[in-house]
Amino acid sequence: MRMKQFISKRNIGKAGNLVFVGLLLLLLFSPDAKSWVLKQLISVGLFRAEIKKEALNGKVQAANVSFDFRTENGDVSSVAGLKGKVVFINFWATWCPPCRAEMPSLNDLYNQLKDDKRFVFLFINEDEDTAKAKSYLQNNHYTMPLLTKAGTVPAEIYSGTLPTTVVLDKEGKVVLKHEGIADYNTTTFINQLKGLLE
């Protein structure tokens, strides 16, 4: 009789509520849990990246997009020196769950196109400690280069929201600025990037 009382609908409802609250707290306070959930949403086709048709047809306004970035070796280069190439820029941090969730997609995109010298990939890390970012990339077997800002970035490119992804066409015009998570490793997006080479 006691077992029946314990397994009553009321107690099952309370247990369900406790489990729900526990999962909610886990998602609120665990970057790994948030990242995992977002990765699952990406994998089912949500958050697809797309360059708008106007941009693909060359109907975009020029903007101030020049800024300097630093390599792991300390060398400083400028985005202005990359004209003639399609430039993919992503601002990210290890403490940012959406950034971590889109990393597999970004790494796959990078690995597919890195040997085509008409593309340049700039993964700009926003962590205070670049050693932490380097460790994160190594531990997850990501091959993308670790770069940092070497000065101020124009607001047309980056306002502080993470993750932010920007694509520049060969003329240095912004054809995509996306704040938030997205899946960049799709056939549609890759074809759009390749279309910018024409």
UniProtKB/TrEMBL annotation:
SUPFAM superfamilies: Thioredoxin-like. GO terms for molecular function: isomerase activity; oxidoreductase activity. Its main location: other. Residues 42-198 form the Thioredoxin domain. The keyword Nucleotide-binding does not apply. One of its GO terms (cellular component) is cell envelope. Pfam families: Redoxin. The keyword RNA-binding does not apply. It is found in: Cell envelope. GO terms for biological process: cytochrome complex assembly. InterPro entries: Redoxin (IPR013740), Thioredoxin-like_sf (IPR036249), Thioredoxin_CS (IPR017937), Thioredoxin_domain (IPR013766), Thioredoxin_ResA/DsbE_sf (IPR050553). Keywords: Cytochrome c-type biogenesis, Isomerase, Redox-active center. This is Thiol-disulfide isomerase or thioredoxin. It comes from Hydrobacter penzbergensis. The lineage of its organism: Bacteria, Pseudomonadati, Bacteroidota, Chitinophagia, Chitinophagales.
